[in-house]
C-alpha cells in the first residue's frame, strides 16, 4: 500500500469483525515499532500482545474496578459527573473487550540531554525539560509505526490511554501473567487491534493553514 493511501486510511477503529490475528502478523506489527526512532536510541518500550480472552477480560475488570473506585468517591460530590465517567469507560475504553488482540504497552521515562546539567546548576526550570517528555515522544513514534503496519496487514486499531488511571492493576496483571518485571517500566497505553467493521466515523482534522507556518 502507498504511504499516502495508508495514512489516509488510518482512523481509530473501535468496532471489529470476528477473526483471529495470527502470531506472524503480531510479530510484523511489533517489528515495525522496533525500528522507530527514540531519544538516545533507548528503545524504552515493550509490547505485551494478549490474545487470551480471559486475560483481556481481566484487564477490563482491573479498569472497571478502578473506575468504580473513583466514581464512588465522586458520587458523594456530583453523581451526574460520576455517572458520566462510568459511561465514558464503556464507550471509550472497554470496546477493546471485543477485539481479538490487545497490546499492553509498557514504557520507561528518561532524563533527556540538559536535564542533569540544569539540575546540577540548580536551575528550577529543569523539570520543564522532563515535562516535554521525549521518552513518550519516542513511544508515540513506535506506536504509530505499529498501527500503520497493522493497516497494511488489513487490520484497524485504537490507541487507548483512557485506562492509564488503572495502571497499578494492569501492571500487577502483567507481572503475574506475563512475567513482565522490568524495573521502572510502567503501563503507558493499550492498543486494540482487529478486523475493522465498516462505516466508522472519525472527527474532522484542522486545516493545514492552522497547523503550518512556513518562513521563506
Ligand atoms: C495518545 C492517544 C490516546 C488515545 N486514547 C484513546 C482512548 O483512550 N479511547 C479512545 O476511544 N480513543 C483514543 N484515542 C483515539 C483518538 O480519540 C482519535 O485518534 C482522535 O479522536 C482522532 O480520530 P481518528 O484517530 O479516527 O482520526 C487516542 C489517541 C491517541 C493518539
Write up this protein.
This protein has nine helices and five strands; from the N terminus they run αβαβααβαααβαβα. It is of the alpha+beta class. It has a single domain (3-211), classed as NADH Oxidase (3-Layer(aba) Sandwich). Strands 1, 2, 3, 4 and 5 form a five-stranded antiparallel beta sheet that branches. The radius of gyration is 19 Å and the shape is globular. The model has no long low-confidence stretch (mean pLDDT 96). Flavin mononucleotide (FMN) binds next to strand 4.
CATH class: Alpha Beta
Overall mean pLDDT: 96
Termini, distance in Å? 34 Å
What is bound: which ligands?
A: flavin mononucleotide
Helix content, binned percent: 40-55%
Q: Look up the CATH topology.
A: NADH Oxidase
* Total strand segments: 5
Shape: globular
* Structural class determined from secondary elements: alpha+beta
Order of helices and strands: HEHEHHEHHHEHEH
For the record, the count of structural domains works out to 1
- CATH superfamily descriptor: NADH Oxidase
> Unreliable stretches, pLDDT < 50, 5 or more residues?
none
Largest sheet: 5 strands, antiparallel
> Taking Cα atoms only, what radius of gyration do you get, to the nearest Å?
19 Å
Query: How many H/I helical runs?
Result: 9
The percentage of residues in β strands lies in 5-15%
CATH architecture: 3-Layer(aba) Sandwich
